[in-house]
Amino acid sequence: MAVHFLEKIKAFQQQNENRYRIVISCPDQPGIVAAVSEFLYKQKANIMESNQYTTDPDGGSFFLRIEFECQRESDTHQLEEDFQSIAAHFQMDWQLVRVRDLKKLAVFVSKELHCLQEILWEYQSGNLMADLAVIVSNHEDARDLAEAYGIPFHHIPANKDIRQEAERQQLSVLKQYQIDTVILARYMQILTPAFLENYKNKIINIHHSFLPAFIGAKPYERAFERGVKLIGATSHYVTSDLDEGPIIEQDIHRVNHKDKAADLKRVGRLVERSVLMRAMKWHVDDRVIVFGNKTIIF
Predict the structure, then answer these.
(1) Does this model's pTM top 0.85?
(2) What kind of fold does domain 18-98 have according to CATH?
């Protein structure tokens, strides 16, 4: 299974050898698109996809994502250096990414494995173009699944009494595997602000409710007691405010008076899986720009 997927990764990287993405946010003003387009033209680049948005053309914020292909072999560092003057002129917050350089992911999970199973299925099917480098859990339940896919598994016990030591070990593992992004696939532990500082807007959580409803623990049970007619799931970037980080994706499913709490959980798991997967794909494809406590999705 691992060999089969490695072939898909290699084919993807070969197809995107000279493809890049540039993602920009800056104060809106005339000339931004023209300046970026002229720069790419001088690099003999061909724009493959372009998306832009402004909160207000008169003094608002402007967002731009361009995917382009260079007709000749280019050096990423040289492109970045050449773009610096334009970025400085327009006060840009920007990132240049080479598409073939896949993001390295770590998945944190506890006992419920349905989101992890979805990630692994999409990964081995070639529908999630990232490097799934390691799985970390505070329980042993996911070990067999990780090993079946040939992915390193680290069991690091964690609870509120040993949180500091657990996070020290977790950060060590993330450093070992050079992780770019952490996925909380139903990881049922709170991360401290000290941990979060290392991965600002690079930790993605799936919460099993349609936020801001039912923040925190046992949302399905509380939804059942409240008699809701819709249940949902929310994928968001993690901040020090519990379940209140920038929302990437949400979805819902209708329920009725006949559904018990167990039925809400069963249906909700399907929603969780799809919502988290869409958020992950948008993130690894550099389609998400954080703007305050909101996100722009291209």
Answers:
(1) yes
(2) Alpha-Beta Plaits (3.30.70)
